[in-house]
Specification:
The protein is mainly alpha-helical. It is about 40% helix and about 5% strand. The chain contains seven helices and three strands. A three-stranded mixed beta sheet has the order 2-1-3, with helices on one face. The termini are far apart. The mean pLDDT is about 85.
């Protein structure tokens, strides 16, 4: 199964567990919650853990906190410009979904609708946990 990838840091920094070289696009979330980078990125209540609880392999997550040899790209221009790394309270998280979901087919089965429902549950859970005051 392909992985869902969630972008916060460069792959080499994740593999080295070095979160000091860059300010993440979720800096406001880190400041507000007082949680560590590790807890937000790969803890039991991380976005990746929530995707995995829905049955979709993901990283970073508690199962796979770093990409290792898997392909992983740094978050894009949008997260760099519009996230809270430069101040403000609006966080930005970029995700990349496998081709199988985008193409809506795995072994001939339609999977996109199930994924969309799971994605909505994950977003709602993450929002409730970290953005409801």
């Amino acid at each position: 199964m392909d992985l869902i990838k969630i972008f916060y840091f460069r792959s080499e920094d994740l593999n080295a567990e070095d979160y000091t070289k860059d300010i993440p696009s979720i800096q406001a979330l880190l400041n507000r919650t007082g949680l560590s980078v590790q807890e937000i990125l790969s803890g039991n209540q991380s976005l990746g853990a929530m995707f995995e609880a829905e049955g979709y392999l993901s990283f970073p997550s508690h199962r796979q906190p770093a990409p290792g040899e898997d392909k992983y790209y740094r978050g894009g221009y949008i997260t760099e410009i519009h996230g809270s790394r430069n101040g403000g309270q609006v966080d930005a998280i970029q995700t990349e979904f496998p081709k199988s979901i985008r193409r809506n087919e795995v072994n001939g089965e339609q999977i996109r609708n199930d994924f969309i429902k799971a994605l909505a549950r994950v977003i709602a859970q993450f929002h409730e946990l970290y953005y409801t005051f």
